[in-house]
Amino acid sequence: MYKIGDLIIYGNQGVCRVDEIGIPDISGIAEDKLYYTLSPVYNDGKIFIPVDTLVYMRPVVSKSEAKNIIKQIPKIQAEIIENQNYKVMEDHYKKLLSTHKCTDLIYIIKSVYGKRKAVQLQGKNLGQTDEKFKKIAEELLNSEFALALDIPKNEVNKYIEESIKKIQKGEDML
């Protein structure tokens, strides 16, 4: 069970803070269950979810875990998924998102960047499905890494790029 103040990943909502644990004063909510009251860190609103929910939840990665994941980025092999059926593509990306692993988010991002380069060489544009899931993956990854690394969300990509350059030069990460 999480504690008040914990930062967690809640489903595909992303990073949320546990504000309260108890029975919210809301009509229609079962009064025999405990609920988490969650606040999305980068969005407005409140989420009331039973403590025993089946929706995926996990703690935000630590700073050292984030750095270790960044070290793995050069080794994550992207795969260009070529399929004319957008539903097959969508299912593939949804399956990867459902693991809630940072490495799978990176896989999506790298795969879509690779696909973008390939289609541009053919004089074409990347499909909306690829763009949509790349954007979701980047938002989830950057939100979590920003908190783990204690940097602004808009600086995560720069931090990753600089870290990878240092790794490739054999230097220590930032």
TrEMBL record:
<feature type="domain" description="CarD-like/TRCF RNAP-interacting">
    <location>
        <begin position="1"/>
        <end position="113"/>
    </location>
</feature>
<dbReference type="Pfam" id="PF02559">
    <property type="entry name" value="CarD_TRCF_RID"/>
</dbReference>
<dbReference type="InterPro" id="IPR042215">
    <property type="entry name" value="CarD-like_C"/>
</dbReference>
<protein>
    <submittedName>
        <fullName>Transcriptional regulator</fullName>
    </submittedName>
</protein>
<dbReference type="InterPro" id="IPR036101">
    <property type="entry name" value="CarD-like/TRCF_RID_sf"/>
</dbReference>
<dbReference type="InterPro" id="IPR003711">
    <property type="entry name" value="CarD-like/TRCF_RID"/>
</dbReference>
